[in-house]
Amino acid sequence: MTLHLPDANGTLRAYEPRTEPLALSGGSAFTSRTVFSAAHVVADPYADTTPDGPAAVDWDATLAFRRHLWSHGLGVAEAMDTAQRGMGLDWAGAAELIRRSAAEAKACGGRIACGVGTDQLTAGTLAEVRAAYEEQLAVVEESGARAILMASRALAATARGPEDYLEVYGHLLRQSAEPVILHWLGPMFDPALEGYWGSSDLDAATDVFLEVIAAHPDKVDGIKVSLLDAQREIDLRRRLPQGVRCYTGDDFNYPELIAGDDQGFSHALLGIFDPLGPLAAEAVRVLDTGNTEGFRALLDPTVPLSRHLFRTPTRFYKTGVVFLAWLAGHQSHFTMVGGLQSARSLPHLARAYELADGLGLFPDPKLAEERMRTLLALHGVNR
Q1: Average pLDDT in the 12-23 region?
Q2: Is the CB of residue 123 less than 8 Å from the CB of residue 85?
Q3: pLDDT of the residue at 51
Q4: Residue ranges of the alpha helices (H) in the chain?
Q5: What pLDDT is stored for residue 27 in this prediction?
Q6: Does position 52 have pLDDT exceeding 90, yes or no?
Q7: Which of 262, 274, 345, 360 has the fewest CB atoms within 10 Å, counting from its CB?
């Protein structure tokens, strides 16, 4: 049946939903690329919570979604910004998420890496920032997961210049038990991270970032770059020490960065691979055969959806990710920790539905249509 979807101008337009999904099935791990999906958390819709209170998580649904990703061969990047880290999920909730997901990964044989930050603090001395990082690193290492050293709001607020970043990261890398992934998250994802690595000049910041890696190449598995600048990522990965991987976090340009060129390629650690999981996995398996054109043919058409979800203000992309998980039947409701389901407009969500439906992402298109119709009716669209 026809849906009437609101556009950005406030007018309704007719849309005919797709009737059949893409035929996608699970599969084994990949051979040519290491690929992580940063996964969202499922809120408990029956919890009596407030936006600034502790998160109430539906653990069964949250872990079921991770099993879904693992079943398609994807790794899970846990307790990252996609899981609303610092936007509804506090450290206590993140620590529980890390422990539960790492145990589930061990049981399932799934790949997992977990975010290490400083969100116990809002600000502090360098010593307090180091201690906060150390506490979180210990939790991740004790869980058996690989650590991802995330950018720290507290460090950005405290650091006096590049030397403080070199000191803090050097200290952490010297004591880490296993190689870690370093995460450079740009201010489009979190405005509090402006000037990270000691400078708002990205060339100068890149030099500091590379200095950290060069001093400890044996302790860096790879870097995750989330700057939404494809050429900068390409230039950066060409300067990495041998054996240090580049994991793209560029949700605007991921197909070309993963495909690579004659001088190298990026692996992936992406929030957009939460809703794209099965399709992304299928594309990477095609790439494993050496068929770059087939990989691009599958993944390039997904870019308009990703660019829509990650449009400014980019940090609210999580709303679209959870919305699509609801439409796809991975959870029974469209409720988010911190009440973040209100962060995007109805026209934005309607366009996300249209783009995802056009790609065949919904395993049950009829269910997605019914849920979209329910949301429209809730907002007064009754035809």
Answers
A1: 93
A2: no
A3: 86
A4: 59-71, 91-108, 126-143, 153-158, 162-175, 202-215, 230-237, 254-259, 277-288, 292-299, 303-309, 317-327, 346-359, 365-378
A5: 78
A6: no
A7: 262
